[in-house]
Amino acid sequence: MNVFLRVVAGEEALGDIWSLSPAAVLEGDGCFDVGFASREEAERAAAHLPWPCELVEVDERAGLDAWRAHAHPVRVGDVVLVPSWLTVVTLDPGDAFGSGSHPSTRQCVAALEALVRPGASVLDVGCGSGVLSVVAAQLGAARVVAIDVAPEAVRTTEENAARNGVTVEARHAVIDDVAGEFDVVVANIGALTLTEMAPSLRKRTGQHLVLAGLLVEQVPEVVAAIGLEVASVEDEDGWACVTLRSRGAA
Asked: Kindly report the CA angle at 35 between 23 and 87, in degrees rounded to 5?
């Protein structure tokens, strides 16, 4: 069994916690999960701390998963420490759109994480800096095609793919230049453009289509233009991300 002590306290508790020689300390929301080698050590620590404490025991596998769920990157100056099981994308947006900070980009990344399976094919329409293409490749997609009408976006996507050690087919093209269907199509390019290319997006979608770069109030018009079944709609700060599915998609 793995044992950790959940201490409900703020930053002022850290000094006292570390003085008890724990195996590890992970910061949560208003608490610290403090790992010990045995139940006895955790109980002794609880007796010495003036803050509310809860003793938690989990089996080895569940304990590992619990620790991983709380782990997050830590920045120290210009150095970022990242747990090895997290997917990391090193990105230089160059002259192209897409640093990863906009809500629509984050929404698309979350959608890709849920949809992309090893061996899948992915089409990134309006790839910008290539962040979504790189994420798709890192998630195990066997083929990732990234298209954009801006030459600098294609160049930046190629550079970011190389920087992250993945393969992306970056092309200076429009969607009608691409043949065939893809398991996942992602387009983070704005409501007007999405509506204009609706027939082409529908034609390229083998299973799921992820649309972003549109405001919440624009969702009904865009969905109606595409004509596929709505699987989910997420919103953040007024920005929406819509996942549609083709007939027969799980």
From this structure: 90
